[in-house]
Amino acid sequence: MLNKVKFAKDASYEFRKSVEWYESRAHGLGLTFTDEIDSTIERIQLNPDFYQRVTENIRKIQVNKFPYSVYYTTEDDTLVILRIFHNKRKPLTW
């Protein structure tokens, strides 16, 4: 199990902007999105090698209830969240 979680700068920015966007659409929806991201991170921490490999060192997992994927890697006992990416966007843009 990975005990530490670190957000890359881009992931932190994308997460914050997505929460703001959802909250602007409906009160409490930003919190629901946050809860789903937290749940996704917990799933990764429990079994980081289970999810789809994108490159040799990067994996992704689909977020429940929202059209987002979390791209991540691991460094020792740390989960590094690289991107929180809307599924309609092309991942190659980063």
Task: Give a written overview of the molecule.
α1 runs antiparallel to α2. Strands 1-5-4-3-2 form a five-stranded mixed β-sheet. A hairpin with a 5-residue loop joins β3 (59-62) and β4 (68-75). By secondary structure, the chain is α+β, with helices and mostly antiparallel strands. The chain has one domain: 2-Layer Sandwich (YaeB-like fold). It has two helices and five strands. The protein has helices spanning 9-25, 29-46, and strands at residues 4-7, 52-53, 59-62, 68-75, 78-86. 37% of the residues lie in helices and 29% in strands.
| Structural Rg | 13 Å
Number of strands: 5
* Count of discrete domains: 1
- Average pLDDT across residues? 94
CATH superfamily, called what? RelE-like
Strand order within the widest sheet? 1-5-4-3-2
Q: How much helix, percentage-wise, in residues?
A: 25-40%
Look at the helices and sheets and give the structural class. Answer: alpha+beta
How much strand content do the residues show?
A: 25-35%
Number of helices: 2
Contiguous low-pLDDT stretches (5 residues minimum) are none
Under CATH, the topology can be stated as: YaeB-like fold
**CATH architecture annotation name:** 2-Layer Sandwich
Q: What string, H for helix and E for strand, traces the elements in order?
A: EHHEEEE
* Span between termini: 28 Å
* Quaternary structure of the protein: single chain
CATH class term: Alpha Beta
The biggest beta sheet is recorded as: 5 strands, mixed
